[in-house]
Specification:
The protein is built from twelve helices and 13 strands. It is of the alpha/beta class. Strand 4, helix 7 and strand 5 form a beta-alpha-beta unit. The chain binds pyridoxal-5'-phosphate. Pyridoxal-5'-phosphate binds next to helix 4.
Length: 385
């Protein structure tokens, strides 16, 4: 730290200089991110609530009410009338809370002290963090030929130590939806906690399904589903950080509660103590402002662009990993390693990401990627071919 105060102008100049090193979503060059620029209205609301702390909700009763309202609203979007949960920092924290709830529930009601979680090979790495922190063993379920969780493999993986099964609605790498209805049935019959990670797909699948897209059911209408992660800061256009964890029953929050003596509430179930109320307020605002109609319009444009990109890649001769279910396209050059292709694209100014299972270039069509960016990208891919 400097000994003496520094002039604001000098500080801002230094920060702006460093900010220039960041990529800008608006350039349409960030192809692998699941985040995007937040909507201006959500940013405006976010700034108004910057000092609110949901870790001490007795002091911020209005903002706590907003969090309750937003959880209720996301719950309804996921076919649940009485939803419990929180707006947290992102999908990682939401998944951590779900697995903590499952572990504590199994410990309390089944006496399991050395638990296991069954996750698909395609699961986000946040589950590895959760297992590590919660001292759980990961049992990986295999994927089928379509890169979705293999139902038989899940059945085989169940043991007397299983505290949770996880499936994904919108996988990180390919945007695929696991056979959640079948897994829900298995979890329900075996009395095992079932968590659905819809961090990416949660803000698009409901609207696509309602408009007739042929996508599988993934939400609380399935009786086995105990919790769902759904992230406003991905497809919801809320500012970072905004993740969502929704529980079917309050008891899942209760089993995580610890005493919080010096605060205005007696117990706390969240992982984080001091918590930003701005994330809840901004999410509430953008959900109201968009409505189902606004979110459908957004995902419809992105799906149309996804199919445009997919068809044109095929025409150029690129090999597509799988037909897109959501707004992600993964592809390969027939004779070039994905990492080599990625490097060529990087040299042309594209920020690409390479999937690991299978190895492929992966493009996530978020709101900042417009048709003209795709046309430019296709032109570069044509030249490379
Ligand atoms: C399916 C899925 N779950 C969880 C996460 C983790 O979310 P976050 O980076 O917001 O913690 C991601 C991130 O991309 C994801 O795709």
């Amino acid at each position: 730290m400097d000994d003496k105060p520094v002039d604001k102008k000098i500080i801002l100049e230094e920060l702006e200089e460093l900010h220039k090193l960041d990529y800008d979503y608006a350039d349409g060059r960030i192809l692998g991110s699941m985040c995007t620029e937040a909507h201006p209205f959500a940013k405006e609301v976010y700034c108004k609530f910057l000092d609110t702390n949901l870790g001490d909700p007795g002091l911020f009763r209005g903002t706590k009410t907003i969090e309750k309202k937003v959880i209720e609203s996301i719950g309804k979007m996921l076919s649940l009338d009485n939803a419990y949960g929180n707006i947290v920092t992102g999908g990682t924290e939401a998944n951590l809370m779900a697995i903590r709830a499952a572990r504590n529930h199994a410990r309390k009601y089944k006496g399991i002290t050395d638990g296991e979680i069954i996750i698909p090979d395609s699961a986000h790495f946040s589950f590895k963090k959760a297992a590590d922190m919660l001292n759980l063993k990961i049992v990986e379920a295999k994927l089928d030929d379509n890169y979705k969780i293999d139902v038989e493999s899940v059945k085989r993986a169940i043991s007397s130590k299983t505290v949770a099964i996880v499936a994904i609605a919108g996988t990180t790498e390919l945007g695929l939806i696991d056979p959640i209805e079948e897994i829900s049935k298995i979890a329900f019959e075996n009395n095992i906690y079932f968590h659905v990670d819809a961090a990416f797909g949660g803000f698009s699948i409901p609207f696509l399904r309602e408009s007739g897209y042929d996508l599988p059911v993934f939400d609380f209408s399935l009786e086995g589903v105990c919790s769902i992660t759904v992230d406003p800061h991905k497809m919801g256009l809320a500012p970072i950080p905004a993740g969502g964890i929704i529980f079917r029953r309050e008891e899942y929050l209760d089993v995580m509660a610890v005493d919080s003596p010096y605060l205005t509430v007696k117990t706390q179930s969240t992982i984080v103590g001091t918590r930003l109320g701005a994330s809840s307020a901004a999410t509430y605002a953008i959900m109201k402002y968009f409505g189902k109609e606004g979110y459908f319009k957004l995902i419809k444009r992105l799906m149309d662009d996804t199919m445009f990109f997919y068809e044109n890649l095929k025409k150029l001769g690129y090999e597509i990993v799988c037909e897109p279910e959501l707004n992600i396209v993964a592809f390969n050059h027939p004779d070039m390693d994905a990492n080599v292709l990625a490097e060529k694209l990087e040299n042309l100014g594209w920020k690409v990401s390479v999937a690991k299972c299978p190895v492929a270039i992966r493009v996530v069509l978020m709101n900042h990627i417009k048709r003209n960016h795709l046309e430019e990208l296709l032109k570069d891919l044509k030249d490379i071919f």
